[in-house]
Write a structure and sequence with these properties.
single chain; about 250 residues; mainly alpha; about 70% helix
């Protein structure tokens, strides 16, 4: 039964991930997610059924459009696989509980903003506003701690990044601020603080690596949303264990 659930969630994630690609790539450009139908970004040819099978279509065509032969961005397959694996990961942590709903919503939001931020360095307000009521209602219905723990996480997460945005004078976008406030309400006060630390460390390592490899310039801005998402997901899944280890470490210094 468990294997069947994993397979179902993975396939569901692949299908939804394909849709999330559309949302993440079109919404920042103020385009409809319905019209026009999916098409090749180079030759504009409308994609058929065989072109829309998640992952397999990309692998079968070796990442090229079947009609014009131009390269198709790997971000499409990335979004599909990422969603599929994260859906399975969330279920492995939460099981069939109310927390599963929160985890799946968190993944959906994170995948969309990651695609959008990587492509355009934009975290669309429309995406945040869409997920806001669902995540708030889900967290209120299925709290694992006092609701004030999550309210405090909301204000601390958003407040810290707002302060950084003011200090950096535009180095931190308001989309990041709003996103992290919402993340704070999902995972709570102490977890959101560590999520920011984890995101910053990973972002710094990746940034330095890209500079060394000369993929980006020293002062070139890089999207921070994906790192905030990664830090939050890590703390969502393993926050209790990390906090316990951290407290043990402090007590035995």
């Amino acid at each position: 039964m468990t294997t069947f659930i994993y397979m179902y969630l993975f396939i569901l994630g692949l299908v939804l991930g394909s849709f999330f690609n559309v949302v993440g790539l079109r919404v920042p450009n103020k385009q409809s997610i319905i019209k026009p139908p999916s098409h090749c970004p180079h030759c504009q040819h409308r994609l058929g059924v065989w072109d829309l099978i998640p992952v397999f279509s990309y692998l079968f065509t070796k990442g090229n459009c079947r009609h014009c032969g131009e390269k198709v961005s790997p971000i499409y397959m990335f979004g599909e696989l990422l969603t599929g694996f994260l859906f399975v990961w969330v279920y492995s942590i939460t099981g069939f509980t109310g927390e599963l709903i929160i985890g799946l919503l968190l993944v959906c939001l994170s995948v969309i903003i990651t695609i959008s931020d990587l492509k355009y360095m934009i975290i669309p307000n429309k995406v945040l506003l869409f997920f806001l009521p669902f995540l708030f209602i889900a967290r209120i219905l299925f709290p694992s701690q006092s609701i004030w723990y999550y309210v405090l996480g909301f204000f601390v997460g958003g407040g810290i990044l707002l302060l950084l945005a003011i200090i950096s004078r535009g180095g931190m976008g308001m989309g990041d601020v709003k996103l992290f406030a919402l993340y704070g309400f999902i995972i709570g006060f102490d977890r959101i603080l560590l999520a920011l630390f984890v995101a910053s460390v990973i972002g710094m390592i990746v940034g330095f690596t890209l500079i060394i490899l000369k993929k980006v310039q020293r002062k070139q801005p890089i999207p921070f949303g994906p790192y905030l998402a990664l830090g939050t997901l890590i703390m969502y899944g393993y926050g209790d264990e990390i906090i316990q280890w951290y407290r043990y470490f402090l007590l035995h210094l």
